[in-house]
Amino acid sequence: MVMLIFPLFTWWYGQGWLQVARNFGISLARVSHIFSVPILLRTLWAPWRRIITYPGASIDAKLRALGDNLVSRCIGFTVRIMVLITAAIILLLVAIWGVFCIVVWPLLPFLAAGLFIKGIVG
Description:
- The protein is 81% helix and 0% strand.
- By secondary structure, it is an all-alpha fold.
- It has one domain.
- Helix 1 (2-34) runs antiparallel to helix 3 (59-104).
């Protein structure tokens, strides 16, 4: 039994802790990828769903196309900014959880031992 405890603690405070930190980074990257944050930032002012009105020959048609395209870009901006805000909130929650896990990880063996002793003592 004692022979198993030393390798466990060696792994726990070495590779295990590093794996928790690596998983934290992977989780942040995954959330960023799911929400396509770089693409949303790059296309922030792009027209919504590529809805573009091409101007005609007259001034009236050009002004109507300008208005339609401006509305399409504003809708695209609004939708993208809302998705970016949602992504930022979820990234913040994942970051808080990841930091919590990294900080609590080294304390878990002591917590388990303490709870075991508390259960026996009463």
